[in-house]
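Quality-control log, excerpt.
Job 1 of 2 completed; input and output follow.
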Amino acid sequence: MIDAERELYNEGTLARTWQERLREMPIYQPSSTKRRRRHLRPTARTVYGIGGMWLAGLIVTFAAVHVMQMAYQVDHLEQTYSSLITQQQSMGLALSQKTTPYVLSRDARRFHVVLHQPLVVHTRSVVSDTSRRGVGNVLSLWFSQVRRALTGKSATSA
């Protein structure tokens, strides 16, 4: 069986030994939660400052070179665009000079070709059933005239 008095004595002994150990431990003042900042040596601070400024200057220089290259490319593209516009205008002028009626008739004589004028179909609008006036009738007549004009059918064949 378990000896209750002996157990109480052992528990008391354990508590006493821990109490003595705790009394012997030195009491430390609580430190602040912030870490102390490390201070650099003045020479290291100077070296890091000069290195940082040199790096910033290098970055700015590369950025400036990039901007200059892009500006050069934009100028080159604008110059190409303006020359293409000029070429388009000169080609349009040359084409319009070569398609005048005088030039066409001269070329037709040179190649022994007879030019015919294109047939122009004259259409006249035929309005039927004008006795009934109304929005629906006017709209249907207008739509039928538009359809005849688009399909090329005359009023008699419709």
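Job 2 of 2 completed; input and output follow.
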Amino acid sequence: MRISSGDTIFMPCGTQRRLRITGPGLDSLARRYTWLQTGPGQWIKAWCNGHLTAVPGSADSLLVAASYVHMDAAVHCPPVPLDTLAGRYVARAAMPGGEHLEQLDLLRGGDAVITTTMPGVDAEVDGTWGLNSDGQLIFEEAGKKFAFRYTLNDGGLVRHLPNGRTVEYVRTGPPERLSGAFGRTARWLAAVSNAHGRGMQAGELRPTMRLDSLFPDPATRDALRKSARDTLAMDEQHLNAAWHDAATVRDVVQLMRGRTRFR
């Protein structure tokens, strides 16, 4: 919820839909909001009882708040992905010895991959993306270790760095789910599955899918492990240590990215 001069907005979590608030519960919400607010236009997560009602002569709706329940300024709704923004966004910069290229694939449904290429470096980072309450695009690393903030700009993106500088990204086309390490992993998993009559399409795989659901019987799991030694270029010692903890497609993608360490 956000209250400013002459404007009271409630945005249900999981949406980008902004609703005006009215009703007998608004006074209680406003008092609590004023007590917690630390900056102009601040979004504060709020819970209330109420219902939606149509605005006569308009396609908009109102939230009729009946009573205040709870408010917490320390928590936030998770960012919401919008399929219309899915795409591949690229930033380029000259540097000594070559070019620094950063590629951001925003995939439908909220998955994301950042690929960084420069002389001596070729790295990928998995994560999720979505818009926050202020309409900023947020990339959050899969392990929630860090997040990046972007604003929308003429069909592209602008990333805001901690030092105040900005980096501009140009949209170059649709995202490619089967590029990079994820694509190599997905095609391999599908090939092993199909060789044992399971029927799997690489393009249907998602990072959070569990291996025990994709390979539910002992025969296919054993076949996958045997194949992993050659595909991931691991000796038996490293395979025993790493494969035991691989529970999801994303875990296997991480092993695929690190395979050159064991050659």
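Post-run check on job 2. Residues 180-195 form the longest helix (16 residues).
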